[in-house]
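Protocol step 4 of 6: structure prediction from sequence.
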Amino acid sequence: MDLLHSIIIAIIEGITEFLPISSTGHMILASSAMHIGESEFVKTFEIAIQLGAILAIAFMYIKRFFRGMGIYIKLFVAFVPTAIVGFTAYKFIKGYLFNPIVVSVSLIIGGIVLIWIDRLVMNKKSEMESVEKIPVRNAFFIGLIQCLSMIPGVSRAAATIIGGVFNKLDKKQATEFSFLLAVPTMFAATGYDLLKTPVHFDRNEIMLLAVGLVVAFITAWFAVKIFLKIVENYGFKYFGYYRILLGIIFLIFML
């Protein structure tokens, strides 16, 4: 991996992390397309730069985390199912599911679901005054659905947004809850991944990692703001079309 590779991968991470199109899937496909070797550093780099994207959300929504303890309880309840499944299935997921074929198929299936969801909730009104008011039970079910995002290509954002609209939130609120839930979920997942894949960095690798973190932070900040406007005005269907097209292209490429 060189500097250009690190910038490209970080841009992809920042753009895709909070969009319902799977950041992990895109990084796997991009690394494959650019023939970047799957070294221990590359694997760690792809995990670590997620921290840059997470920090962008943490700063963007920092005021929401100071409105009271209610939101923390809801996020914790939603996080628990993912933590349990992630801890118990970690080896299986890393060993058997991280490949371009699984990603491509997941992108296509997820795209079809997003298009269907978009039609279902096009004019749906929320039953909640705000995401902070979501009942604990509904937050738990969103967390259960988030577990599907363990499969590369499914997308954590897509899973939680779909879970949100099925649990009385409108499309904007579902998207915002997905962003907030990303903070504890991704901090925990990224930290656990880094513990499992220790790497001794040399000076060049530290520089590549620093560049990746900064690029991912900046890219994610702008991507989230643009994504919210797209969701409000156009819904999720175009992300569904994109997923299906990308999945088909890479299936043809791989097969």
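Step 5 (inspection) to follow. The mean pLDDT is 87.
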